[in-house]
Design goal:
This protein is α/β, with parallel strands linked by helices. It has 5 helices and 11 strands. Helix 3 crosses helix 5 (191-201). The chain starts with a strand and ends with a strand.
Length: 214
């Protein structure tokens, strides 16, 4: 199994820290942020990681190189123009084989990733999403799932009268290679607003893992 990290963000809200350094390698406790995500993927047995880059990609490549210093193989998929979350995944299609773990590039978490992957295989899911419970989901994208974990609805920024659960997309996925066939090539495309609702509409099996970890 491979991993892909969406690491193309400009980090506008972190300025001035990100004027001269890409957000994914801003130091956190004296370590480039990406190393925490790489460590988590390694804990699940993932030893080949694709970094999807856009903003100041050379600085990330110069720091991490081929990944040998971190006991992984790192490949780079650089976007000529921002392609959105799903578009970035499609841009790395040449290296994607079988199921792939995908992280948003700004997620710091202690989620039990091996358990998430096990659930993905057990359910024969096409897309498995990690969900996080929140007190007020009105500012987020609500994801509804049943007792078996099967996802039934996505609702972006619901009103108070529309809330039926408190679980939101945490930006961690396990995706089958087959989802690539549902994405356009070279065009901006979103996991959250386009791909996932489309898969649901087509009746593809999608499951959630609700995590209360950090």
């Amino acid at each position: 199994m491979k991993g892909l990290i969406l690491a193309g963000g400009k980090g506008i809200r972190l300025r001035p820290l990100t004027l001269n350094i890409p957000k994914p390698i801003v130091p956190v406790a004296n370590r480039p942020f990406l190393l925490y995500q790489i460590d988590l993927m390694k804990s699940a047995g993932i030893d080949e990681i694709i970094l999807s880059l856009s903003y100041q990609p050379r600085k990330i490549e110069d720091l991490l190189k081929g990944g040998a210093d971190f006991d992984v193989l790192i490949r780079y998929a650089v976007e000529g123009a921002p392609l959105g979350t799903a578009g970035a995944f499609k841009n790395a299609e040449e290296w994607i084989e079988g199921p792939t773990v995908v992280f948003n590039g700004d997620v710091l978490t202690s989620v039990d990733l091996p358990a998430v992957i096990a659930t993905h295989h057990e359910k024969k899911s096409v897309a498995t999403l990690v969900l996080a419970p929140v007190e007020d989901p009105t500012a987020y994208g609500l994801v509804e799932s049943d007792a078996s974990g099967r996802i039934h609805r996505f609702l972006e920024k619901p009103g108070m009268d529309e809330i039926t659960s408190n679980t939101i997309n945490a930006g961690i996925y396990v995706l089958e290679q087959s989802v690539l066939a549902h994405m356009p090539q070279g065009k901006p495309f979103s996991f959250e607003r386009e791909l996932f609702p489309s898969l649901l509409e087509k009746g593809e099996p999608m499951y959630a893992v609700v995590s209360d970890r950090y």
